[in-house]
Amino acid sequence: MTIGDLRTRKPNYSQEQVRDRLENCKQLKAKEMSKVITFSRRFPATHPRNGEATLFVPAINKSLTRKHFLSTGNILDALFALNKHLHKNIVAEFEYENRLLIPQWLDLKPKKHTIRGGHRWESGDKFSPRVWSGRPYCSPQITIAPDIEIKRVVNICSDGVLWFVKNKPIDASRLAIIAANDGLSIEDFKDWFKNKPFSGQIIIWDAELFYL
């Protein structure tokens, strides 16, 4: 066999093997295209509620359909399936800590979007929703749900006093609605952003939510 033969020789794969390999390629591409958004499990040190649970995880899950989140029989099994690379004890501890917060879920409203600085997101993008299992940036990340598709993005900014959506100033009542859809009270929202200048996007995954 010559070098030329090696260059032109085609691999002898069955049609089933070719389909399997193509599907693997598609899955790899999908994983590469999905970006990551991390969510805080506790209020940051700069917030008056430092250390308290944000309840973002159950609020996000409330905004998703059960069909989207659960491909298996229960939440723990679904989390195991989403985090096969992690030791099961890490995932089980995370799920147990969430269950301890169940009494606080009763009046919890769904978190329908997140607000992030910059302008890197577009409608149709997908992201992997994650949290840190322990100390931020010093512990493994836990995927809390399958990839979520962004339905729309809306520009939002503040000069430190007024807030603007789509370059139009909004009043306190509209800001309270945005805060609630972001999983925060209006007071917590203001303390989160510290009345500092901000420019970014409202990243919306609820198909029925629009800001005019």
Structure overview:
By secondary structure, the chain is α+β, with helices and mostly antiparallel strands. The protein has one domain (34-204). It is 36% helix and 19% strand. The chain has helices spanning 3-8, 15-33, 56-63, 66-69, 75-82, 88-100, 172-181, 186-193; strands at 35-38, 113-117, 126-132, 141-143, 148-149, 152-158, 163-165, 168-170, 198-204. It has a five-stranded antiparallel beta sheet. Strands 1, 3, 4 and 5 form a four-stranded mixed beta sheet that branches. Strand 3 and strand 4 (141-143) form a beta hairpin. The longest helix has 19 residues, at 15-33. The radius of gyration is 21 Å and the shape is globular.
Helix and strand string, N-terminal first? HHEHHHHEEEEEEEHHE
| Percent helix range | 25-40%
Based on secondary structure, the structural category is: alpha+beta
- Overall geometry: globular
Radius of gyration: 21 Å
Enumerate the spans where pLDDT stays under 50 for 5 or more consecutive residues.
3-8, 28-32
State mean pLDDT (0 to 100 scale): 87
